[in-house]
Design brief:
273 residues; alpha+beta; Metallo-beta-lactamase, Chain A; 7-stranded mixed beta sheet; 6 helices; 19 strands; 20% helix; 27% strand
Length: 273
């Protein structure tokens, strides 16, 4: 039986003869059902008209995204370390070329995902690379297709591998997380934030939202909590959720300024000056 994938968000559901009547991820206020209604595909069908593209952002960091864009345009990141490779976030399309390339680079030691909008086909990736999937326990209810390889963590931080630390930020989702890579940016530190702290299109500031497509903001308290969770970590560069959402330098200062600006705007104390 096929395991159907939602074409709007990329989430895969358990095998069944018929697609689900609705997608719970899209029904949530953080996402949406397209005007034409819910659509469904399978991994086999997706491979016919789509392929994955790759971008080396910096040494030992490779972006993986599907072309033409699928679902919400998710992009994964492959981090290469002396202790094994980690896939940060997940995309729906897993094709033969991607499996071959990643295995040639040493395979995967672990998969870690920031929040449910990137769960997609995580079970397929876990099986292909015999790798555990690390998710924050606060978001376990959003798993649409359970997999025995899922490992939950529920602390404020979790040491994934030496030099790689998962950080619970909250905000966008209760268990929404970022990944700190100490060796990134030539040792100055890299933060992979997905959309817990989203790099804006100006590529010099951040925003913070409960829902991006529906423009539901977070409270000032929630944004301050995100800033506080990330403050202990040294980083100069941030990679957000899409290929082009990168702050290459002074990213920690940009985050501090963005938190202050956001809280001021929410509280009516910021006028743009």
């Amino acid at each position: 039986m096929p395991a159907y994938i939602c074409t709007a968000c990329g989430t895969q559901y358990p095998p069944d003869e018929q697609p689900p009547q609705r997608c719970l991820i899209c029904d949530d206020e953080r996402q949406f059902v397209p005007p034409a209604g819910q659509g469904w595909t399978t991994l086999e069908k997706l491979c016919i008209g789509h392929a994955n593209a790759y971008r080396e952002h910096e040494r030992d960091l490779i972006g993986i995204g599907t072309q033409p864009a699928f679902a919400i345009g998710q992009r994964a990141l492959l981090i290469r370390t002396p202790h094994g490779n980690v896939l940060w976030d997940c995309i729906a399309l897993l094709d033969a070329a991607t499996i071959t390339l990643i295995k040639a680079l040493g395979g995967l030691k672990a998969i870690a995902i920031s929040h449910p909008h990137f769960y997609t086909t995580m079970g397929e990736w876990a099986r292909a690379f015999d790798a555990p999937v690390y998710l924050n326990a606060a978001d376990r209810a959003w798993i649409m297709r359970p997999h025995p390889g899922v490992t939950f963590w529920d602390e404020a931080t979790f040491n994934l591998l030496p030099g790689l630390t998962l950080i619970r930020c909250g905000g966008h989702f209760a268990g929404g997380s970022a990944l700190h890579w100490a060796a990134g940016a030539d040792g100055r530190g890299v933060l992979l934030t997905s959309d817990m702290a989203t790099v804006n299109t100006d590529r010099k500031s951040f925003t913070f939202m409960r829902s991006y497509p529906n423009m539901i903001p977070l409270s000032g308290r929630q944004v301050e909590a995100i800033g506080a969770a990330l403050a202990p970590f040294a980083f100069d560069r941030v990679y957000s959720h899409f290929f082009d959402r990168v702050i290459h330098a002074d990213a920690k200062a940009a985050l501090h300024h963005s938190v202050k600006r956001y809280v001021g705007a929410i509280n009516g104390a910021y006028d743009g000056s």
